[in-house]
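Subject: Interface between my chains keeps coming out wrong

I've been trying for a while to get a sensible model of this assembly. When I model each chain on its own everything looks fine, but I need the whole thing in one frame so I can look at the contacts. Pasting all components below, labels as-is. Any help appreciated, I'm running out of ideas.
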Amino acid sequence: MKTASRLYVWLVYIFLYAPIAVLIFFSFNQAKSRTVFTGFTFDWYRKLMTNDVIISATMNTLFVAIVASSIAVLLGTSAAIGIMALNRKLRALVINVSYLPMMNPDIITGVSLMLLFLFLRMELGFTTLILAHVTFNVPIVIFNVMPKLRQMDKNVYNAALDLGCNPTQAFFKVLLPEIMPGITAGFLMSVTYSIDDFVVSYFTSGSTSQVLSVVIYSMTRLKVSPEINALSTIMFVVVLTILLIVNVNGSKKEKLEVRKIGGGSTL
Amino acid sequence: MKRFLAVAMATVMLLSLSVAAYALSDQNYPINIEDMDYYQRFQGQDVEINVYNWGEYLANDPVDFIDVNAIFEELTGIKVNYTLFASNEELYAKMKAGGTNYDVIVPSDYMIGRMIKEGMLQKLDYSNIPNYKYIGEQYKNTNFDPNNEYSVPIYWGVVGIIYNKTMVDPSEIKGWDILWDKDYAGNILMFSNSRDAFALSLLDLGYSFNTTDEKELREAADHLIEQKPLVQAYVMDEIYDKMEGGEAAIAPYYNGDAVLMMKENKDLDFYMPKDTSMFVDSFCVPATSENREAAEMYINFMCETDVAAANSIFVGYSTPQTEAYKKLDEDLRDNIVAYPDVTGLQSMLTLPEETNTLIDGLWTETIASNSGNSPWLFVLLIVGLLAAAVTIVLVRRAQKRKKNMY
Amino acid sequence: MFGRKSASYPYLVFMTIFIVVPLAVVAYFAFTDGAGNFTIDNVSKAADYSSIIIRSLLLAFIATVLCLLLGYPFAYIMSKKTSNARRTMQMLIMLPMWMSFLLRTYAWMTILENNGLINKFLGLFGISPLQMINTQGAVVLGMVYDYLPFMILPLYSVLMKIDPSIIQAAQDLGGHPLQVFSKVILPLSVPGILSGITMVFVPAVSTFIISRMLGGGSSMLIGDLIELQFLGNAYNPNLGAALSFVLMVIILFCMSIMNQFDTDSDGEKGELWV
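Reply #2:
Try treating it as a single job with all components included. I did that and got this:
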């Protein structure tokens, strides 16, 4: 059974990563082709470093993703806390409405937001872009934080108040650590969504700057340059490295804890 | 979490440094400018222009070649905000929807005609674009801008048939009908945008690709439906890899792209039917722009002989600038694929709105028709819905039973 | 219940402006024509495209089922690992989403084409090329590939919360593995299944680039059709809004059917990752 599950997991990994391997492989291709490999070269990486358009688009993407996710975390966490205190009917309504950006196909979200911004006579640009990203990120944060709030023992908060904390202290010292995993998960997921988003960004971005996904799409009339492959490979390596660091760190912490408990019990 | 942020910051900083590190000095392709003074007008005034162009449409490889936008910025002190689009329709939609403010755009012929009609462009002051004198006469007084008031050409080209010599007998190619040839079923590629696809169908039937006659358009749609079983795929840029990789035998596309593809795959060749369309992409200035003079300076810069030549070499599309043409390699100039004889060729015109709606509607029907919606798919759907309904009922009953147990 | 109502006010305002109002705007555009007069023409036109809508629903349905079948075992295996391994697996699942979706779809073309990697590999054994690309199957593959992580993560979340002692008890009471699974684990994981189905079905129905690149552009999906209204030769935001409106209604309908299965006792809608 164990080998069967091992095999299965690895098959899924291969399925998920096969295209990525191909992508990385062709970033070293001498020709601009996606099918014919003519020779090995680092050219595209060199050209990427000086390609203004792609680099500024990447910066824009990261900027929008991080800013929008941060705002979403603030808005979403306070929202989750607030929603818990609402009466049942209102709570159900708010939750259902919050579902909408996730349930709506992103083309509808993108188009509707664009129409809204035009209706408000706003100029499309960074502001509209970030607002749009916050719109689809806040539900993600809410739906990650709320379960943690639900699971939390409500009495701990009251106990903190009884022991002399004022509400703010109780929030930071008691509440926040409990829901932190939810906040982190929400933040990471929001960043991921924002980076990969194409449709919403497409409809809500302005005339002075673009995000990476829109730039890549615009290259499709002539040919998508392998510089994009190079960029994706770099991003992949960076995130993978972060992953490894976190992983190593995590397993070290686990070993420490096991030692602390004294031999560790198998739970 | 903290560690994640730290590493992310480090990465961002690293990338920023690499951007700062690239300097403008090393240019591999010298740009000589006659009238340097003309470009100094806006120095130090913090002017910015928003340029909206096709992807990969200007030379922007400072490592092995040159980056024309960077040179322009250095020369004039005007900042260029450069953004990209992938189709004329995208450009139109973005401008029509509003909320954007572009100073320079690069539409194609029929889109220019449409924008002029709808008042979306402003007239240019050609005294600010002295290099316009180098544009070849055959690219002026076009059918979309007959009085040369709104546009300055950047590239031109023709649509033709790219084919693989090992898979197709060249003597069989006499016109567009080869795209309907049953011998090549499954090996034919076709345009995935409605205007271009309809143009070819109309030409094959002997009609004008600018027709507004509803009967002719419906015939063209039927003709496209006839072609559908023979078509391998409806593509735009995927065509590069498919033709270069030998995945398909015949495809219609632009001659500039053909030149590039033929370089990669020696088995490819290009045939230009005599009734084909010539496309001209041009610089225009939107009516909403408030920086017309800076925009004109940009356009004039792009028409500098060395700049136009560099762009043409990089992108592979043919230049309308006569002096730039002279600067090109002899074998490129003599290449009849890159520089065919265009006498008598027409460009695409703007069609009236009803025609556009008709074409789009017919295109949707064409695409949606007959495409493997085999009956068993519908059966599956019905079965699936029934199964879902049955499951719901069963689950409901089970729940009730559970509730009644307590 | 604790928590302060006022904490939610900023969000409620935000929500109204950015979620409710845009949808109202879509409805407005759907039911008016270019000049602003009320008309149901656009919405009734959507009926003309019913074959496209059905095809989109069908392909999305198949893709969702496949994701469920593929994702469930994976999520289950994942839930049994140590916390470190679980975290790693979680990030490995999400990592592909950081790479451009367009590029990954291009990569599938390279793999599936007649001269692509798989066929070149098969050619080594003398097997003639299989037609994989430019079929509806390829489109479903593309959908499954893109949305599998969205199925795995909610399932995993829920499976992880199942108290192992319940499973232990079931086994002690004499249930053999299949019974334990179908009577204990499966019912408890239903909220995760529902989340996963939602997260996969909705994007799958409205996807638009996959059908062009992997399907050969010959089978148009509703996403392509909506995109055509905004980016096609005829700029028609009213028809686009109408189609979007119809799509939204259909999805809400499907979701409400699905929520019949939601057995959460206090009647609240489950959360995404639970």
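Reply #3:
Confirming on my end. DSSP finds 14 helices and nine strands in chain B.
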